[in-house]
Amino acid sequence: MELANKTIYQVFVRNYSPKGDLRSLDADLERIKDLGIDILYLMPIHPIGENGRKGTYGSPYSVRDYYEISPDLGNKEDFLQLIDHAHELGLQVIMDMVFNHTARDSVLLDEHPEFYYRENGQIGNRVGDWSDVCDLETGREDVQDYLVDVLAYWRGLGIDGFRFDVASLIPLSLFEKARKRLGNDIFFLSESIDPDFARYVATLGLHNTDDKNLYPTFDATYNYNWFRDLERYLRGEMPLSGVKQDLMDQVASLPGRIKISALENHDTHRIASYFDKGDQRLWNLIAFSFVFPGMPFVYAGEEYLISKDVPLFEKDPIDKNMGDMHAFSFFKKLIALKKNPLFSAMESIRFIESDPDGFSFAFSSLGKHYYFHCPMQGTLPSCFLGEAVDLISGERVMLNEPSDRCYLVCLEKENRL
């Protein structure tokens, strides 16, 4: 299976279950596999710093020890059992690695105080309201060697890849070293920063690797280049045309490159929070996120359309009963649909001008031509009527009148999906 056909599932272990530990996640792996997930992404599972801690439990991105597991989540035996079980089910597992900074009471401060950025002799951070962390000098050879050793350690325990926090702020040379050491059969996902933050970083004269240059060291990068404008559209602050232009710019500037296609993560609001319950546009937008080029990404709980945000600094477990239980089967169908080779061979992509209020687009793949119709403000224009596939029900239908639902249409009737 091509990487572009796989789906990532992000888990914040602390708030994933009432107990909030690795064993509880392990016990739920069959459900995750049944959903169709290919890659399980664990947010940081390391011990959390106490100095400057935010909230009651602290941020998992304030790492105290890269080589240990936070005691409240479990131990190495639990971790190894989770990895083995995931592999038995055919799931890959990736870890979140935070290399731009550490906790202010990290064990590394005692071991290697020279590794840290200092201002007027004091440890600190270069950018952001990150009062619970201090920055590493990631451009130093010895710092890079230490961090690559960290990756090699977890790789040795069976990890299949890594998601790197704010990777754009870290010199690419670190990841190039890691790639050389670990090889090409390991998955590297970059949290490339959003355009607003990138512009701010630039005003400070700080390092920032743009998305284009993160490849081919990284297999995939974040979709913040268009996601932030999607949020503005959902808040009524910009027209849909702006989001579509961002998407076409991405296709044009990064041909053949993989972006994740996320509608939410731990740093954003739940996508369901932008819509009233039962709003067809939410279902349409989710379908679009799977069909448009990109690697689908599901934040745990999204598959039930849960609208309540997950607090980063507190313990507040996801309650599946707060969501739509029918949504699970909807996500399951879309994840299965994405595995079709059709979606890893898409080309000649263009939005359809006759649907200015929707995400409808045309594309070619494997010698055939398709329309994907995704109305967002109204109904499907009458020019799109005809035989189609209903992506929500999975049924083949004949469109005889305008609709507010998503459809995938093959233009050559003798060639069925």
Fold topology:
Layout: E1 8-11, H1 22-27, H2 29-35, E2 39-42, H3 76-88, E3 92-97, E4 101-103, H4 107-111, E5 118-119, E6 122-123, E7 133-135, H5 141-156, E8 161-164, H6 172-182, E9 187-190, H7 195-203, H8 211-214, E10 220-221, H9 224-234, H10 240-253, E11 258-262, H11 280-291, E12 295-299, H12 327-338, E13 346-351, E14 361-365, E15 368-373, E16 386-390, E17 396-399, E18 407-410
Parallel strand pairs: 1-2, 1-12, 2-3, 3-8, 8-9, 9-10, 10-11, 11-12
Antiparallel strand pairs: 4-7, 5-6, 13-14, 14-15, 15-18, 16-17, 16-18
Summarize the structure.
With 417 residues, the protein is α/β, with parallel strands linked by helices. The protein has helices spanning 22-27, 29-35, 76-88, 107-111, 141-156, 172-182, 195-203, 211-214, 224-234, 240-253, 280-291, 327-338; strands spanning 8-11, 39-42, 92-97, 101-103, 118-119, 122-123, 133-135, 161-164, 187-190, 220-221, 258-262, 295-299, 346-351, 361-365, 368-373, 386-390, 396-399, 407-410.
